[in-house]
Amino acid sequence: MSPQSQRNTGLSSNSSKQRIATSFGRAVESYDDAARLQRYAAECLWQCLDPSPTLGVAVDLGCGTGLQLSKIQQNADTVIAIDLSRGMLKHAQCQYPDDSCLWLQGDAESLPLLDATVDTLYSNLMVQWCHDLDQALREIYRVLKPGGRAVVSTLLRGSLAELEQAWRSVDDYRHVNDFLSAEHISEQLQTQRFSVARLQVEPLTLEYQRLTALTRELKSVGANVVTENKRKNPLSKLDVQRLLSGYEPFRLSNDKLPATYQIGVLVLQR
Questions:
Q1: pTM score > 0.90 for this model?
Q2: Are strands 118-123 and 57-61 parallel, antiparallel or unpaired?
Q3: Can you tell me whether residue 46 is helix, strand or coil?
């Protein structure tokens, strides 16, 4: 893509977005090994995206460490990798030093691309971090060419429900982000101008021997940041014990602890 295809846009100064970018930037070395959820969601997206004959000009929005870039590159004429986190973007660029890929630091709510310049937009488990999903959807519509398509995954309300309930044994602060419901996103899609706009829900349960394995995994992918009403003081030993005890009722018959996710897959065509 030529420089004329890019739109100058400043990154949001929103402090929560800066915290998100910093958290993911710190997770670059551990991300790939811990990204079980992300790999599963990626497969859900690929099942919805027929790459034939080509993806054309393709955007990986929220490219992270570049887990899906090689697959996108195999099926696209041009690839644009965008991420809010400069640390993630630099890491991905080192992993995939390909001159055919354009690397851009950018915000999904203000994409650094001109109108109608993208054939295919791919975004895996990123838009749940957007402050305004409706604005992100408008931006996706804006940059897609007529007939262009997007597949987007996000986490829905009900994700990490066991962890959220266990934290209620400790305090009233928010320790799990409040994800949008499938009903809310479906209503937002009805206000958009996409010729095709649908949402399908893919449930997933991951299992852990100990709760610390789950919390370590969340931190390893940078997803442990809470955007509002976050507790500031450290946990006491009693708090930790209450949290562990609060999660125990969910232990399965195989002696594992479950973490349930509700993955929303959006299929969009302009």
A1: yes
A2: parallel
A3: helix
